[in-house]
Amino acid sequence: MRIDILSAVPGLLEGPFSDSIVKRAQEKGLVEIVVHNIRDWSTDKHKKIDDEPFGGSAGMVLTIQPIADAIESLQKERHYAEVVFLTPDGEQLKQTAVNHLSMQGNLILLCGHYKGIDQRIREHLVTREISIGDYVLSGGELAAAVLTDAIVRLIPGVIGDEQSALTDSFQDNLLAPPVYTRPADYNGWKVPEILRSGDHKAINTWLEEQAIERTQALRPDLFEKDS
Ligand code: 6GU
Known about the structure:
227 residues, elongated, Alpha/beta knot, binds 6-chloroguanine, alpha/beta
């Protein structure tokens, strides 16, 4: 799988993929993440990529040409399942969408900036619009990093313990149960006895109960949805 990220501020994306699970996934050849500077495609003599909005509202708007040329040149090289625009007015990202995107093949992630991007890019080139929540970020880069991380960890082989991604919070519309490690007693703070019993059937039942209890207490809304 290959993920191409188009950004006006590619420096913002240097950190998130150069450590930990996403870094290892790239080293193992399980995913290729390529960050592009939209400016590289600008045909303007000053490499300009934005302009004032028609109608005269405040702020600058990313122009069509560099973004259209970037997307079209990538699409000439390989097939992309989706061109995702990260925007606060997109569909709110949920685990089901992440699961789906992780199985789709190559992706282009387009990060907006300034006041936004020319609407015609959204109409003609973008196939899906995603937000990571009801708050406003300065640009789509951090959202693209969130989406990429969530997708990459689901690619088979990325997480050592195959079970691990399946037992994440949200995979069954349930929050994950609590976890503990040594010491079993930290100055009187004790690990629940059941987890040390060695009775795997009883342990699994307890873990399921915990997941349900935690979801009921913290996120009862998850029970009301089936997606
Ligand atoms: Cl995808 N972009 C921006 N700029 N702000 C956001 C967002 C995306 N998702 C939530 N807030």
